[in-house]
Design a protein that fits this description.
This protein is mostly helical and 99 residues long. The chain has one domain. The chain has three helices and no strands. Helix 1 packs antiparallel against helix 2. The protein is flat and about 45 Å long.
Length: 99
């Protein structure tokens, strides 16, 4: 898979490359470790890379940054419970829900 992107700034192209690279690593880690066993920091890095790319692309277009929306504590606790339940299902379970 290759990404070709036209952008005003090199930073946007670099961030697209990083985003795709981390997404590939998530797929590889899921294949190696199984569903629900991928290290959480890898998904956090994917989310951070996605936000960085989006904001860089928005900057190229002259738009304002998208800020991270705070997730209420109740939803974070609920999400954590879903992720624990998914992890307990084992390697043959469907993909975990993302927040």
């Amino acid at each position: 898979m290759n990404v070709q992107l036209m952008a005003e700034e090199q930073d946007t192209i670099d961030r697209a490359y990083i985003l795709i690279s981390i997404a590939r690593r998530c797929a590889i880690a899921r294949a190696i470790h199984g569903a629900g066993q991928v290290p959480e920091n890898l998904y956090y890095r994917l989310s951070s890379a996605e936000r960085a790319f989006i904001n860089s692309a928005r900057h190229d277009l002259g738009l304002t940054e998208v800020r991270e929306s705070p997730i209420p504590l109740e939803l974070r606790e609920f999400d954590a419970g879903l992720q624990r339940a998914h992890r307990d299902l084992g390697p043959d379970s469907p993909p975990a829900p993302s927040a």
